[in-house]
Design a protein that fits this description.
- The chain has 179 residues and is α+β, with helices and mostly antiparallel strands.
- It is 35% helix and 26% strand.
- The chain has three helices and ten strands; from the N terminus they run βααββββββαβββ.
- Helix 1 packs antiparallel against helix 2.
- The radius of gyration is 25 Å and the shape is elongated.
């Protein structure tokens, strides 16, 4: 039986930046989580305002019940959103000197993209200002990533035969001048 590979099976000599690619609107889900927690807390405040005023024993019992319900509901909401968000952060990328390795959370093996087959490297800016980097390889595969390091971009731009729309000078990235 083969050895099961884990996230820590990689050597520590990688150059470049490990980037996390998000394929879902996690900010929107986080905003919904904040809203859900706010609703849970506001219901707890409503329950606190309805507690008996004069009977101290009944008030203590009601307070304990209210705190238990607050904890249970906020834990339930948090677990729900963690389960909902987990599949969306599903891959990470490691750039080495001669290749790019990509592994998803549910993959046993990583996918290797050698830089020798890299054909195009393009910077794409969306309408909201998000920057994506598109890599196209000669075997027909393509990959979109975010936030590679400046050193990695310098290395990719300097590779022979790679078509790109950016240039790097003095550790600054700028659009390549059109001929």
């Amino acid at each position: 039986m083969g050895k099961v590979k884990g996230l820590l099976d990689y050597p520590l000599d990688y150059s470049g930046l490990m980037t996390f690619v998000i394929d879902a609107p996690l900010g929107f889900l986080a905003m919904l989580w904040y809203l859900a927690i706010f609703i849970v807390i506001s219901k707890a405040f409503d329950a606190a305002n309805k507690m008996p005023r004069r009977d101290k024993a009944a008030r203590a019992i009601k307070k304990n019940q209210m705190l238990r319900d607050l904890f249970r509901r906020s834990l339930g909401v948090t677990l729900f959103f963690l389960i909902l968000c987990f599949p969306f952060v599903h891959r990470y990328e490691i750039f080495r000197d001669h290749e790019l390795r990509v592994r998803g959370a549910f993959d046993w093996d990583d996918t290797v993209y050698p830089f020798s087959t890299l054909r195009t490297f393009r910077r794409t800016v969306t309408g909201k200002g998000l920057i994506f980097w598109d890599l196209d390889f000669s075997d027909g595969r393509s990959l979109t990533t975010t936030a590679p390091s400046i050193a990695l971009i310098e290395k990719i731009v300097s590779l022979p035969g790679v078509e790109t729309n950016v240039a790097v000078s003095d550790h600054h990235i700028h659009p390549k001048a059109k001929p």
